[in-house]
Amino acid sequence: MSRPFPEVAAAGCCDGLGRIFLFVAAAALLLPLSVDAADAESAPTPDPVSAPVSVEAGSGSSPSFNLNFDTLLKSEGALQPLTGLNSEEPRRTEPEFLLRLGEQTLFELQRQKLDELGLYLLADPLLVPGSDPGERQRRRWHLLERQDQLDQLQSEITDAFGSAQGALRVELGLRLGDFLLRANKPHEARTVFETLAEEVATDTGIHQQILERNVRAYFREGRYSEALRVARGVEVQYSPDQPSWRQLLGLVLLASGQSGEAVTVLSELSSVEARLWEVYARWQGQGLPSGTALIQLGKVKIPVDNSRVTALRSAMI
Questions:
Q1: CB under 8 Å to 214, separation ≥6 — which residues?
Q2: Closest residue by Cα to residue 53 from 42, 62, 40
Q3: Residue 76: inside a domain
Q4: Contacts from 76-83 at CB under 8 Å and sequence distance 24+?
Q5: Short-list 170, 171, 224, 179, CA closest to 197
Q6: Distance in angstroms (rounded) separating the CA atoms of residues 187 and 196
Q7: Considering the domain boundaries, does residue 116 fall inside one?
Q8: Distance between CA 189 and CA 287 in Å, rounded?
């Protein structure tokens, strides 16, 4: 067997290697095109809303970023993307944060048992900028009483009353006296009212209010004769006709043994409490037998949520 000529064999080998190289190169060029074509056929068509906007060369425009974080998944009830974030509209100015401690805020604090937070906020004027110091102080006192911090409340109002002048002193005196009455301290309340009565002119409505409170303080002390004396003076000088005053006058008359006059005054009123006291005054003045008085007391309709008047009727029976 003859062996091929070395140069011919080498040429054939080179020719074979060349064909292999050309095949590999062609395959390398064609493979990405085939893969891209297959991907293009198998990939889902993107949502036109979510597809990014192409930018042409030389157009001068910049890409618009999608800040809605849209996805291709859509289901019923899904949250819709926010609108306007990618638009060219100017963004609205953020609202200024302001702290307000109004009546609604105080109610919400009470509902959520956060009165201590309200006291903390009211104690520092920097936390409630632009607020009126007097109004802030009144709201603090309201929260102190609601929290049953009565000693602290009495101390603060007493100090403010001692240093106040003019109309503010009168306002604080009435507030202090009313608080002392609610705290079952009628003697201290009367001392405050008598001090105010000496400082306020007698021809004013404020003086009338002070004397009416003085009558209430005497009555709460159990000093009925003094209460009746001051009450008759108020009747002569001012002749007030407010239902609250007429009921207080009727109770003072009843406690002082003037049952007939008490019936006359109480019969003018239409409140549930006044009707109970009228029946009681008639019975005390021997104008009603006990059985009839009990029946009439039972006929008075008292609202379900009025536990105080319900307790009053039970005490009368």
A1: 190, 193, 194, 197, 230
A2: 62
A3: no
A4: none
A5: 170
A6: 14
A7: yes
A8: 36
Cβ contacts of residue 251 below 8 Å, gap of 6+? 219, 262, 277
Give the containing element (helix H, strand E) for 37: helix 6-42
- 111, part of any domain: yes
If you average pLDDT over residues 167-180, what whole number do you get? 95
Query: pLDDT (tens digit, 9 = 90+) per residue, 105-161?
Result: 666 766 777 666 666 666 666 655 566 777 778 888 888 888 888 899 999 999 999
Give the C-alpha separation, 195 to 172, whole Å.
12
Q: Is residue 290 part of a domain?
A: no
Angstrom distance (rounded) from CA 19 to CA 22: 5
DSSP line for 92-112: PPPPPP-----HHHHHHHHHT
Residue type, 237: Q
Share of the chain above pLDDT 90, in %: 50
Residue ranges of the alpha helices (H) in 43-127? 103-111, 115-123
Q: How far is CA 16 from CA 2, 3, 6, 25, 166, in A?
A: 22, 19, 15, 14, 119
pTM of the model: 0.62
C-beta of residue 49 within 8 angstroms of C-beta of residue 70 = yes
Count of domains observed in the chain: 1
CA distance 33 to 37: 6
Domain enclosing residue 135, as ranges: 101-148
**What single-letter amino acid sits at 53?**
V
Residues 153, 155, 158, 162, CA torsion sign: negative
Q: Which amino acid is at 286?
A: Q
Residue 91 contacts residue 116 (beta carbons within 8 Å): no
Tokens of 254: 């009843």
Strand positions, DSSP E, 161-252: none
Compare 246 and 132 and report the one with higher pLDDT. 246
pLDDT for residue 179: 95
